[in-house]
Protein 1
Amino acid sequence: MPDRERLVEGRGLVFRPGGQAVLDGIDITVDRGEIVSLIGPNGAGKTSLVRLVLGLARPDAGSVWRRDGLVVGYVPQRLVIDPVLPLTARRFLGLGGQAPASLRVEVLAEVGVAHLLDRPVQRISGGEFQRLLLARALLRRPDLLVLDEPVQGVDVTGQAEIYEMIARIRERRGCAVLLVSHDLHLVMAATDRVVCINRHLCCAGHPETVSRHPEYVALFGPGLADKLAHYAHRHDHVHGAGGEVLPIGGDAAPAGTEARHDHG
Amino acid sequence: MDEFIWRALAGGLGVALIAGPFGCFIVWRRMAYFGDTLAHSALLGVTLGYLLDLDLNLGIVATSLAVAVLLVTAGRSQTLGTDTLLGIVSHSALALGIVLTTFVPDLRVDLMSFLFGDILAVTRTDLLWIWGGGALAGLALLALWRPLLALTVHAELAEVEGVPVTQVRIAFMLLLAIAVSLALKVVGIVLVTSLLIIPAAAARRLAGSPEQMALAGAALGCVAVAGGLGASLIWDTPTGPSVVVTASLLFLLSRLAPARLSLSR
């Protein structure tokens, strides 16, 4: 991605909390406006990598660079609010910082949970709560959205809706998205680039390239890889590949870049 | 009525007002054991105060602050569970405090009043400590309110959003140390945590927002203090425990309240 402005860049990241290597030599970059999906099996160190990128933890080796004044909107993996704390959605949003009421209305409508404003957070369902978290992140007008498994506890239809929403948000706001998932085929349609890790960096690149990479296939199995290729293919009509499965080469990434501009 | 009763009431209400909001954060942040540890170490403060010929209030506040700092720094190493660490500090401090009282004959006589509180013996100086210290701690808590609430909900999210999490956490622990040392006056070392958490817990079902819960906790604390003081005058029961029993009754009542009264459950 040549002309894009870099937002974050991690190089050679090693993370050994308590002596055991959770991450070993990972590179990751996110540029303005792109959606990067971070995938890997459970225990692969995805959340650790996110914490390094966010500056919540320090790497044992390697470095993380963040653009000066970068505003990050973060949706953590697990957020359970104890029932002993009385908190409405409105107050929950306010905890992220002061935001004008007009912006709040706009953002809540954007993620489709405006009707929840006065409901206690403990009575909001999984999918709606994820949207509320997203709204809190968007209220900060972020340059970069970091979403750690944003569809946890959401049913399958809801999951697809949330991913579509993320793609729409990117289109409208032009913010970059770093998306953590253990499930490539769901995030594939909306992703420009995939980084697959399993403690070390397995492979990175265009979603389709990754889905056929031997290390990826070894992790997730060939059956899934086929499904992925098929799924991705339906979204490749923009650059007119016809009915054929695209040949896989190292230069698949620019094709992905083109496809992005034809979305939505 | 005698002046000492009004002093007791003034002291007790001052403590109850500050205990409401602090108690809420103890309940929300699951820090009841932490409060206990601060309280137990206060006896050490009393003893050291006597031995070094310091003002006792000063001794208590200084020890509580020192223990708070110790817990914050020790809590960083994760080799021991937090509850284990608190248990060690809490009971060691209490035991050491009791052992040391052997060398302070005055204190041996007074031991029970330190353990279970002696609000009827509150002096004008104590009142100054309670209301002055309470106002200070209360205002500081007000200033910390939003960031502290944000990190109570989710520390890492708050940190990404720019809350200086470590500083706010330490500040809260120090303020809590002050609040605990003030509350000791009313219910004593053994029962102090109850004065913090029971009114707050009783307030939960009456509240629809964090602020409502803090205010309701303060109000219920005041009712408990007045009720306990009254009961101890009528039946000659020990004041501190009577306050706690009253608070517990209020808590039970709040549980019996019909669910529709509660705004958010």
Note: The interface with chain B takes residues 18, 51, 54, 56, 72, 74, 76, 79, 81-88, 91-92, 94-97, 120, 122-123, 140, 146 of chain A (CB under 8 Å).
Protein 2
Amino acid sequence: MRPFRNAPIRVKLTLLLVGVVSIALLLSYAVFVVNDVRMIQEATRNHLSALADVVGSNTTAALNFTNAESAAEVLGSLKLEPTVVYARLYDERGDPFAEYPGPTGVHRTPPPLPAGETFLTQDGYLHVFQPIMQEGQSIGTIYLQASRAALYGQLRQYAIIVVAGMSLSLAIMVVVATRLQRVISRPIQHLVDAAQTVSAKADYSTRVMKESDDELGVLCEAFNSMLSQIQQRDAELAQHRQNLEQLVQERTQSLEHKTAELEDSNSELIRSNTELQQFAFIASHDLQEPLRKVQAFGDLLVNKYQDKIDDEGRDYLKRMQTAATRMRALIDGLLSYSRIASKGQPFTSVNLHSVLQNVLSDLESRIEQTGGKVECDGLPTIEADALQMQQLLQNLIGNGLKFCHPDVPPLVTIRSRPYRNNGQSRRSTSGLASEECEITVQDNGVGFDQQFAERMFQPFQRLHGRDQFEGTGMGLAICRKIVERHGGRISGTSPPGQGAAFVITLPVTQSFRTTGTKS
Amino acid sequence: MNQHPESIVILMAEDDPDDRMLTRQAFKDQRLANDLRIVEDGAELMDFLHRRGKYTDPDISPRPGLILLDLNMPKLDGREALAQIKADRSLRHIPVVILTTSKAEEDVFASYDHGASSYITKPVSFDGLAEVVKVLGKYWFEIVELPNDSET
């Protein structure tokens, strides 16, 4: 069946039906034919046996009288039996006595004479040896050779019948089988078509038509229910996917929205910060204008109307001008404070020791006046805004000279040492170790109450009365703002009776920071 | 040939009336006899110099020998006015002295960069202003030579 392995099922089914029926037919034909052949052979044998009997008894006299002519005559009567092609008569001793050459007269050699009655089938002929009995004694033997033409004719006839019958049966079988196989092959074909449609178009709405309640019907139902499940799962999956897509889209939108909001608020923050700095700068700048007038007209009053104002009036004028001077100092402080961020210079390499020398020369008269001393064992070179470094040191050293005990000459000591930052500073976002330097400005003055250690860095914060120490309260605020712009830290400590110490930590390089340059 | 110093017209651009008054007073106190003309903003200054608008009559808009210029003014501020003066072939020889309240580094630098002859921060006190006017008068009308203006 190998050549049919890939043949369609309907072909296989048809072949199967036709094959089975053909085999059955062939078998029954075979049984029938074998039986018939056996019966024909039996009949022929009987017939020949009877014939031999008759011819034998007719030759008894001829044998008794050894009359060969008479015997041949008797044998000649066999011409009426066309199947007998040859006959011979043996005498008592077994020698040929007479013969019948048959209708064709062809000489034939019989098989050797056996003892007793014998039937042989040899060379396509039937051979019969029959002893001739007389009074219980054998007086000779008759031999007949008969052709099997009748049998062959019969067989030929059978063959025609078988072939014709088989052909007709086959034709009918093919028709019937073709119809019968549809019962099985059609549902299968439907299943195949449906499966192909599903796999080709991914169309899970396809259904197979059920034609019966047998196994194929069950298969169709199972297939349909499988398709239904797939369709349902497909729909669920599509729904899930849609939900997921929607969810992703919603999240993306909300994220975009939030990012936009963040960007907005960030730029808003930058804008308002810039505005605030601009505002502080412009406001303090504009505040100076009317103040200058107050002072100028006050001067004019003092200059031109000195004689016309009494002492009390002059005192009022003096107080007014003192207040104006103080206001000027406050505004100057505010202006400096606001300029740190808005008007800062880009960072360059600054030798802090040279900066310190400038500061000391600026403070020279103050140091002389107070009899004070400023000591320093050397400062490093760092990346910074030189002017702001000068302002920083000036404010801190100035404070040290200012807040001194009345009867003790001020001593300001400046020390510096490298400071290894292990990336833990809030400024060092890279997490890398960055080099910093630590500068301590220590004085021997009055110090401050430790509880104000943080507050004194706020603008306009003063810890002393104006009659005690001059000042606007902006100095340390400016210091902190400068240090923070450089990415550093500043703090103050004041152990009782040991003056004040301000510790500044500044990065040696500014390259890792992106901020700090002038906007 | 030097002009008679007192014939030199000084043109002051100042938006603040108090400052105008104080400056006039300082001129008076220092006995500077020069003709002090005052305009109130940069636009008016340019009208005066170009003899436009209400300054078409040359009698009321003589060529100044020195300009005192405030930086922060409405309409056209001093920075722009300075740039326009120094960009104009017929005006750029006139010395411009910036007299302003601003101490900002960038204003100082930008003013000289644009061709200002001096930069003075307005003194806080009247005495300071009087001193500035005195020194200005001595410097510009006694010490230095100013160019002769062909038009005057």
Note: The CA atoms of residues 372 and 409 of chain A lie 5 Å apart.
